[in-house]
Amino acid sequence: MTRPPTAAQRRVIDTADPVTGRLRGTDAQLSALVKRGLAFKHPRPPHDHFLTPAGHRLRETPAEEPAAPASAPEDSGVFAPRVGGEEAAHTTSARQREVHGAWQGLLELRRMTNPGGATDRPCDWERAHLVRAAALALEAAGHRPAPGDGEGYRVRATPQPEAVAVYEEDLTALRACATTLERAGWQVSEHTEPRTRARYLLASPRRT
């Protein structure tokens, strides 16, 4: 079995950009992660290092201390797309910059990891983090997440392996969410809850 990364290497992994997987560390640490198959060096200048899918999986695995959850509050220092239902959902200019940067980073990750450098469809990171990926696409496009029990979108996991549900009480806003997700490379269909008759979306990352 491959030896686990050292404590210093693990810190480099844990502090990687949560969306792009961009790493910061010493040359020795980064080279060691490349040798372990946990990172790769981008061939284009400035030749930054990024987590591989194996590195992302390791990052999601708690080490001695649990990693911060996806719903971590903003003051924890961990960026998390708003999935809807968060108590503190005020949009500030700083938050808008964070969301814009995260979305641009995700597009760069698509370019680096999708065949042919395609940016018009989701990448492996998005398929492994469906709720967060869909929420980021919506928030980056300016849709309003539901604050607490208020109005706005809510992205939730579903029993289906590659699908999330998007809820929005306003039908016009719901269909605007569908348009945004389709433009971001998701397949979207509209459905009705059998009991409540509420409309919702099912969205899955498009592969081609």
Q: Can you walk me through this structure?
A:
The protein is of the alpha+beta class. It has two domains: 1-67; 83-208, no CATH class. It is built from seven helices and six strands. The protein has helices spanning 7-14, 27-35, 53-60, 93-113, 124-128, 130-140, 171-183, and strands at residues 39-41, 49-51, 154-157, 164-167, 186-192, 199-205. It has a four-stranded antiparallel sheet with strand order 3-4-6-5, covered by helices on one side. The chain has a two-stranded antiparallel ribbon with strand order 1-2. A hairpin with a 6-residue loop joins strand 3 (154-157) and strand 4. Helix 4 packs across helix 6 (130-140). The longest helix is centred in the middle third of the chain and has 21 residues, at 93-113.
Summarize the structure.
It is built from 7 helices and 6 strands.
Low-confidence stretches: 64-77
What is the strand tally? 6
Q: Biggest sheet, open or closed, and with what strands and sense? A: 4 strands, antiparallel
Radius of gyration based on Cα positions:
18 Å
Oligomerization: single chain
Structural class: alpha+beta
Number of domains: 2
- Calculate the mean pLDDT score and round it: 84
Terminal-residue CA separation: 36 Å
